[in-house]
Amino acid sequence: MTETRHITHWIGGKPFDGDAARRGDVYEPANGRVAGHVDFASAAEVDAAVAAAKAAFPGWRDTSLSKRTSVLFRFRELAAAHRDELAALISAEHGKVLSDAAGEVARGLEVVEFACGIPHLLKGGFSENVSTRVDAYSILQPLGVVAGITPFNFPAMVPMWMFPVAIACGNTFVLKPSEKDPSASVRIAELWAEAGLPDGVFNVVHGDKAAVDGLLHHPDVKAVSFVGSTPIARYIYGTAAANGKRVQALGGAKNHMLVLPDADLDLAADAAVSAGFGSAGERCMAISVAVAVDPVGDELMAKIRERVAKLKIGPGDHPESEMGPLVTKAHRDKVASYLDSAVAQGATLAIDGRETPVLGGAGDGFWLGPTVLDHVTPEMDAYKDEIFGPVLAVVRAGSYEEAMELISANPYGNGTAIFTNDGGAARRFQNEVEVGMVGINVPIPVPMAYYSFGGWKDSLFGDSHAHGMEGVHFYTRTKAVTARWLDPSHGGVNLGFPTNG
Ligand code: NAD
């Protein structure tokens, strides 16, 4: 028997020592082993975390900007120094390869770096003499206790879209990470403590719907940031808003890549394979549909085949592995079910990932190799659903207009990309497409930390995208002050509506 780990909450600056009535299994997807058990929070444990965050708020809110920033800088240095350790935790529980896991930590750290500039970002406005010897100014103040609820696919990066900005703004934070890969968040909490963050400013509660509902209904939680699938995002948005909270809820995706006949097809095929199968397609910015405009479909398919044939599939810590397993057996089986349904509905199974060899052997791991479905049409389930696995659908379109109509009609609007050498076509695409994040000859890029992240339509509920200036606005509220200091010229009582003079 190999040892299993016990993962518990982090409340008030230390691990929470309680008896959980419910626990979840945490797997190692590469071999199917249960590697640990994670405590599931009840309403009482959520309450304890929110109470710790509430108690820490007055002190943290009034901590000077330079002190807050120095804690952020120390956290940035510690997280960078422990990047490989965080990557190993992520890779073991999620399955993604180590370099990919290290990459998500690096992208998350960019948001910490952005948040280190908080003194500048929190500057309000000041207008002198809005009326005679009267000044007006604005102050950006934190909200209080804010919560983050995050998905399994980026256990470090997605929480890092939220808490660096929230904490830098002076809020205190309760994170409810995915129960499938919870360990990175606890290690992050330890690094915050080592960086000198006061106890209670950053807390972690684990669990499922019960923990989430505890946060959504808690009167002391002022704002909720969510990232996950569309049905849950819709539920979070509705419930949190009905309880009077500020909410941003980022949902699922079906990202199309449009390949025009004049595109560099080698570049386009590299992009389709990299963004289709990186992290086994379990990325919200993965390309799941390639739309090839006639007549390039066959040539693009040939180039995709060549590249997929060379991909090496294996455990995340295998030095040659480029793609790992899926996160759970249930998810693997659901993803694989689309292969049969697509064929039954008329698609061509061009590459069958069920036959892909696994470095070191498949054992009981949750494996599915890169799969390509060709001649997919919009009525098929493999087109309509977010599969969230290593399945690339290729759709043939007769013209740019036909392809554009398909992309803009899709209910999801997270990311899209166009591959072309025609600047005019690219410009028209960026102008017309009904999608929130666009790549031009770049396979669906995650925007830099100073450009906020978020999709349109069913990919985002709420009006704020994550991080960047939109994050600063989301985690603060503005106070407008009009001030007059005693001056002999003040005019005495006046019941008229104040106007400027
Ligand atoms: P999920 O929606 O199943 O879970 C997300 C979070 O919600 C988890 O913390 C989970 O515990 C919680 N949750 C699950 N069911 C719940 C319920 N019934 N009530 C309350 N809370 C519940 O998502 P996932 O499978 O962990 O992650 C994959 C999904 O996330 C994909 O749809 C992907 O597109 C999406 N995603 C979107 C973005 C984005 O930026 N738009 C980024 C990453 C992932």
TrEMBL record:
What keywords sit in the KW lines?
NAD, Oxidoreductase
Q: Which residues form the Aldehyde dehydrogenase domain?
A: 22-481
Q: Does the keyword Oxidoreductase apply?
A: yes
For whether the record's keyword set contains Aminoacyl-tRNA synthetase, the answer is no
Could you tell me the Gene Ontology terms of the biological process aspect for this record?
A: L-valine catabolic process; thymine catabolic process
Q: Name one Pfam family in it.
A: Aldedh
Query: Under which EC number(s) is this enzyme classified?
Result: 1.2.1.27
Q: Which residues cross the membrane?
A: none
GO MF term set = methylmalonate-semialdehyde dehydrogenase (acylating, NAD) activity
Gene3D superfamilies with a match to the protein in the record:
Aldehyde Dehydrogenase, Chain A, domain 1 (3.40.605.10), Aldehyde Dehydrogenase, Chain A, domain 2 (3.40.309.10)
Which top-level enzyme class is recorded in the Swiss-Prot or TrEMBL entry? oxidoreductase
Q: Which domain of life is it from?
A: Bacteria
Which NCBIfam families does this entry report, sorted A to Z? MMSDH
Q: What is this protein called?
A: methylmalonate-semialdehyde dehydrogenase (CoA acylating)
Instruction: Give the source species.
Output: Actinomadura physcomitrii
Q: Give the lineage.
A: Bacteria, Bacillati, Actinomycetota, Actinomycetes, Streptosporangiales
Its gene is mmsA
